[in-house]
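FORM 7B: Structural annotation worksheet

SECTION A. Query
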Amino acid sequence: MGKQRRQYWKKPMAVTLLLIFLVSAGSFGVTYCVNQMEEAKCFERLHEETGEMIRLIEKNAAADRAQLEILALIVAQYDDLASKELWERLDSYDLNGIMGRLELLLPDGSLLVKGGERIDVSDRLSFAQVAMLGAHITDRETDWEGKSEHVVRHYVPVYQDGEITAMLCGVIVLTELPENLILNPYGGEAALYIIDGKTGDFLVDTWHETTGNIWDLGEREMAPGYDHEQLKQGLIDGETGYVVFVSETVGEYLYFYYEPISINEWRVALSVPESAVFSSAYVIRDMLNVFLVFEATCFLLYFIWMFRYIRRETGEKQRQLDTINYIYDVEKLLFNAHERRENIDLALEKIAQMTSAEWVSFWLRKESGENILFQWNMNEKRIEDSRYQEEAVSFFYQYFQQGESQFVAKDAEDLKKLLPVGILEQIRNLAAVPIEDGDGGVCGVLLSGNMPQWQISVVPLKSVSISFGMFCRNMQSYSDILQRGETDLLTGLYNRNRYEIDLKKIKAMAWETITCFYIDANGLHELNNNRGHSAGDELLQLVAEQMQQTFGTQFAYRIGGDEFVVFAFDVDETTIRRWGKEFEEALIKREIYVSIGMQWEAGVCSVEQLIKAAEKNMYEVKKAYYERKNYGRNNKDNSVR
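SECTION B. Predicted structure
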């Protein structure tokens, strides 16, 4: 008897130990995968935020250039460039960009600074060389006012009587640049660098808080797979790339991403310490460790319990284990079923095996009220009676919304008593449970039918109801994410992401004719300046609203700030032109003016060329419109009254 008991123990113990090993290995595997994912996300985020830094710097540089050009016109009005009146105007001017102060370089080699004070810089600087470069930004220089800090100078020429009589300079103090730009990359965890690729000089270095030289720092200890020369050559050549090296400051790996900027030969780079990169992974690792301890404790208790009851419960436990395996399989299948719909059929098949049912169905009700039916049938046949489906769905939703937690009909007589007559003519017995969403509402119904009499029960269905409830929530979240990712929030039209996706579909479809409307809202920039961005937003919304009324929404997109694209397929050219005219006239009645470029083609060879042709037509219409209207900055068209 003892030997037989040991035989009973042998296989469960081996399986349990194997499970412990697999869970442990799986936990380590998950930790490794999470680390890889976090590292990939880090570089992706560094790439995105570096690009954002570059765009911000370039935008401010362009804004500074515009300010300086305006100020140069003001300076040109004064014969005496050192006059008190001029410098009162210059010193009181509110610089909105990244410049800290203004200076004037004169042909005699003198530099006029705040208040018109004159500094002789002829031994350090040639006016002719600076003037020859025209409007430009210098590389890193020393502040000429005697300060030890480094600066960058933004020059524009001052013309008087057709000649350059001075160079107006906006001084950018490099130590103040991060604060002026309000830079906070990677949630404040990352350091920002602006590096001169020619010299290696730091223009900005928020990690060391100095403006030294990157090559003077010497070689860094690199992570496996990375090379110091790769970093150096990449910065010199203006490449985009990343490396991982050990920081001597904090003694841990720094993840360093660099990218060229359009100003001089500057490079913008971000670095983030390893502790910030893997902060989420560390939390997950700690949770997994706690989970492993908890699971080990549970396995120990399981051993003790199994030792006491194995002789009289071996068979029952085997059935329970089979059920658990089925539930686990269903849970795994439903985990990503919102992306892989075929997993739902596989999950229903698992439930059929667990309940010995001939068919299993899952009815999902979406927020829109639409019902979706998923069904597995051992005869590979679906019940196609639409009247049956509609009546059955309506009955069960009402039944469970009244607070009932289960439905069981063990034979035909029960079916006739409980269900409306004629709904389920092909079913001998039935079990059903409600599937609840996170708020406790009924979002679906899970049913199994035609089971052996001894197997008729809602217990197996209830055991997987939580997984189906999670699937419902995942499905809704997934749908919401897809919709937000493809919809322009301001206008309700599809956005650029959906536009790029649909272009691939359009290319793959065999259309006899394709029409592209390329639409631009006239005067948006002036409207924003004159009446604010809320008025501009209203204009875009009205244009989008008329687009939906005229062309529909299936292939209507907002692809840029004031640019829209609409496609129409297999519509004759006369109708297309009528639509375009109706659209434009409807907007003109509301005092809204747009430029429409229309391109209708049969047997389209290249959708890209079709779009480019429509865009070109739009620009021609826009040009003609502005010439006809003598359009200027003070024009009141598209005022959205």
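SECTION C. Observations
The chain has 17 helices and 21 strands. The chain has a mean pLDDT of 81.

SECTION D. Sign-off
Analyst initials: ____
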